[in-house]
Amino acid sequence: MLVSKNSDTENENNTNSQTPRHNLSFNAIQKEDWAQILEEKSINDFRQKDLTLALFYSAFLNTSDHINLMHVFSQLKDFEMPNPQEPSAYYAELIDRDVGRTYQQIPYFKVKQNQDQLRQLLLNYADYDPDVGYAQGMNFIAGTLVYFQVPQPQKIFNELIQNHRNNYISGTPGLFENLAKLKFKLKTSIPKLFKHLQEIGLNDLGICFSPYYLTMMLQNTPFQYQMLILNIYQLMGQKYITKLLIAMLKLSKNTIMKLKDVEKVNKYIRTELVVNFFQEIEICRKEQRLIQLLFNIGLIKRVNQY
């Protein structure tokens, strides 16, 4: 078990408090552990929640490592596309439209070859799962795989979307369920912030947070952290999106509380919330207080004392 200095009582207002020692509920994953995982292509000797936290503090993992880990974490070992069929003209039109809207600020996605690869991933999935076909948000997930040139991108993309498909099927039941859970967690764990959002008129959390679920948090996440996000998703599933959002809101609570205009809050949550989170992760990592931060924003829990 790792030991960290923190407050005995969690304080949502202060993520920097220095406190008495206590045991934290995770086992550290060392550099040699990651080497073992990558060599053996297995995580059977490790707990998923330990690996998830380690993705945050293992600064030595590079982009290539994260790409290789995607295939280690993948549970779909073999994949073949069914006999090719043309997806409906409706989905093809939607895909063509959204390909040009995917990461528009990145020159890489203005290159025709890369756009064609992105388009083909999406068309293939529409053929593979016609009940879902295509929905907005999927383009950013596919775009990340194309940008990082992940091997076997169709296999990885299909697996990711299959695990997330209840957010895309008709009526989006998964999205509504996730937003309801987020609202409950926000109300119970950060009540002052929840009250503030209600008072300024932000009653529908879907306005701000739907894109996080529909894009697996990728749309506004800095590119250097996108593979980390996908690896976390592979390990923990969509429930961790809600957990991360609550952690990010705890970190940005004071900033959001100062915003009195609903449009400014909406813009901050949609575009700056995740950026601020990873900036703070890097600062705390360099200052060797990352474990403390992760504890204070609820990503690490304390074990019962004997």
UniProtKB/TrEMBL annotation:
<feature type="region of interest" description="Disordered">
    <location>
        <begin position="1"/>
        <end position="24"/>
    </location>
</feature>
<feature type="domain" description="Rab-GAP TBC">
    <location>
        <begin position="24"/>
        <end position="237"/>
    </location>
</feature>
<protein>
    <recommendedName>
        <fullName>Rab-GAP TBC domain-containing protein</fullName>
    </recommendedName>
</protein>
<dbReference type="InterPro" id="IPR000195">
    <property type="entry name" value="Rab-GAP-TBC_dom"/>
</dbReference>
<dbReference type="GO" id="GO:0031267">
    <property type="term" value="F:small GTPase binding"/>
</dbReference>
<dbReference type="InterPro" id="IPR050302">
    <property type="entry name" value="Rab_GAP_TBC_domain"/>
</dbReference>
<dbReference type="Pfam" id="PF00566">
    <property type="entry name" value="RabGAP-TBC"/>
</dbReference>
<dbReference type="GO" id="GO:0005096">
    <property type="term" value="F:GTPase activator activity"/>
</dbReference>
